[in-house]
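dumping this here so i dont lose it
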């Protein structure tokens, strides 16, 4: 049995991303308070919907921070959790996606009810709140852009802030329509737009979480190409029971049974095969943890369940 542990820089967001998430959380809560106060003063459903969206996003960022902290400080492997607590990040992202779907449903129902009885609104005050929200969201996007490539939770937070920015645009447009035409149902239309923007992001996040929990092959890993690379290694005759899955974002793992040919007759030869396999994985595939079982030719016949 041979093991290789490739600890690249992909996993984890690091202290810098925890700090950036904290800053984004503070900014989000500030905008939330501003929008909630203005919504109470003006009766704007669009602002109230966006504030509710921000509340969900704030909770999601809190969960992301908690998950990252647990994964980095309490994620050491143990006898009961051999991969530590890295999956907490995935669970937090899943809860975040469910919260977003719930918010979208509430916003849509509330907006439809408003069409029959749209109240008069102060478009100027709504426009000011929407402008503040857009400016703050742009700052948040700039802070999280780098970490969105490395962490599922940071990516979720980035997408939420992006949705918030688009929501602020919808608020600005509806407020402008109210100011110019006094057509107050524009506020309910903006609310439906915000709900429509939330759903695809939530579904996408939940789909990624489900793929991790089902231990699906990562999208960026071509299993056929990986098998071909292994078979091309000197001393390798066949490979079976090849599996690649993900523990958490940026942490793919792999296991395989490698059948060696008759030229591999001792541990030194097996060690050389393992070195070549590790070198191949390091050069062509970003695998955090790989496990190879070296087998002689014909050994698979004695195994009850062989997956090719």
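and the seq i came up w/
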């Amino acid at each position: 049995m041979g093991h290789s542990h490739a600890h690249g820089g992909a996993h984890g967001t690091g202290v810098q991303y925890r700090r950036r998430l904290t800053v984004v959380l503070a900014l989000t809560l500030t905008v939330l308070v501003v929008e909630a106060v203005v919504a109470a003063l003006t009766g704007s459903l669009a602002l109230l919907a966006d504030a509710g969206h921000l509340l969900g996003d704030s909770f999601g960022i809190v969960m992301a921070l908690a998950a990252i902290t647990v994964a980095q400080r309490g994620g050491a492997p143990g006898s009961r959790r051999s991969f530590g607590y890295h999956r907490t990040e995935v669970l937090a992202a899943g809860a975040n996606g469910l919260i977003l779907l719930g918010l979208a449903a509430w916003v849509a129902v509330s907006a439809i009810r408003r069409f029959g009885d749209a109240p008069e609104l102060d478009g100027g005050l709504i426009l000011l709140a929407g402008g503040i929200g857009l400016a703050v969201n742009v700052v948040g996007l700039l802070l999280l852009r780098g970490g969105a490539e490395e962490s599922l939770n940071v990516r979720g937070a980035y997408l939420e802030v992006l949705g918030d920015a688009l929501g602020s645009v919808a608020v600005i447009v509806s407020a402008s329509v109210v100011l110019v035409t006094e057509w107050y149902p524009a506020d309910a239309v903006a609310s439906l737009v915000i709900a429509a923007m939330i759903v695809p992001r939530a579904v996408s996040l939940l789909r990624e979480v489900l793929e991790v929990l089902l231990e699906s092959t990562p999208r960026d890993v071509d299993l056929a190409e990986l098998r071909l690379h292994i078979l091309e290694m000197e001393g390798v005759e066949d490979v079976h029971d090849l599996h690649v899955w993900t523990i958490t974002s940026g942490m793919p793992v792999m296991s395989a049974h490698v059948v060696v040919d008759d030229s591999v007759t001792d541990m030194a030869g097996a060690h050389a095969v393992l070195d070549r396999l590790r070198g191949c994985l390091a050069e062509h595939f970003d695998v955090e943890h790989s496990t190879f079982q070296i087998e002689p030719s014909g050994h698979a016949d004695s195994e009850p369940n062989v997956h090719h």
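The beta strands are 2-5, 236-248, 251-260, 289-296.
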